Amino acid sequence: METRIKLPDWDALAALADDDVPLVETALLIARDEYPSLDPDVYSACITRIADALREEVAAIDSAPDRMATINRHLFEELGFAGDADRYYDPRNSYLNDVFDRRRGIPLSLALVQIAVARALDVPLDGVSFPGHFLVSLAVDDGILVMDPFNRGRSIGAEELKRRATPHLGGQAPDDGLLFEILSPASHRAIVMRMLRNLKSLYAEDEAWDKVARCADRQLKLTPGTLDGLRDRGMAYLKLGHPSAAREDLARYLALAPTADDVDAVRAALIETGRSTTRLN
Asked: Strand, coil or helix: what is 32?
């Protein structure tokens, strides 16, 4: 039977509960902004084919870690999915269609592939918004199995996790309680928001302000009032010559975050909107 999926409507996502946001579908919706002719059914069918190739083998395995090891072996060794260390900051590594097509990605996008395939096989894999490097986790009888999608799904122990987290916590290693909190499953909304932030940062580095504005706008569709979405869309609008739209976003940002660290820079940008002339296209 042909696998078909329907992409959600951007305007409907904000009303959904965090884990009711469809993960794969929303990731493909983000990709469609860059690839308007993208056919989501192609990638839904790809997930189904990968899962079907493993279904009997995985069903015969009792141990959850062993089931996950079988999935990882197929994805990373047999199919060749891998972290793109040479072109890490290539935006293609953040678009799910490109990740399936090229079998290259960054931690977050490779995690989405793992999650989609594992869940299709009734293996309840979760994403983890670990600081600096997205991870995946699987609940097991004696705790949590944490894996690194960028490194072929390699499992990571508690001490390594603490070392990885330390630079992002002011140099202070987390205790067991804080580490457990950091390893909490990320909601679907949080995962796709992180994907948009990654893309937005890449496009800002390239000064592709139209795409920065687009990513920020999508953040605001998912989570209205998102502060960095308001700020970055406003800044991008200003760069693009749309001072009125920029003024609205930047003023709202300052009203919602009057003590933010960047208020001086945002106020300066807001003043600049009053001096700018709207660009005619």
From this structure: helix
Do 106 and 93 form a contact (C-beta atoms < 8 A)? yes
CA distances from 272 to 35, 205, 213, 234, 264 (A): 34, 21, 18, 12, 12
Provide the pLDDT confidence category of residue 1 given band limits of 50, 70 and 90.
very low
Yes or no: say if 107 and 153 are a contact pair by the CB < 8 Å rule.
no
- Are 10 and 192 spatial neighbours (Cβ–Cβ below 8 Å)? no
143-148 and 135-140 beta bridge pairing = antiparallel
Residue 225 burial by Cβ neighbours in a 10 Å radius (0-12, 13-18, 19+): exposed
pTM of the model: 0.94
Is the Cβ–Cβ distance between 27 and 195 less than 8 Å? yes
Q: Domains in the chain, start-ordered, CATH in brackets?
A: 10-182 (3.10.620), 225-273 (no CATH)
111-159 confidence digits (pLDDT tens): 999 999 999 999 999 999 999 899 999 999 888 999 999 999 999 999 9
pLDDT digits (tens, 9 = 90+) for 48-70: 999 999 999 999 999 999 999 99
What are the backbone dihedrals phi and psi of residue 205, each rounded to the nearest 5 degrees, phi first?
-60, -35
Q: Give the end-to-end CA distance of the chain in Å, rounded to a whole number.
A: 47
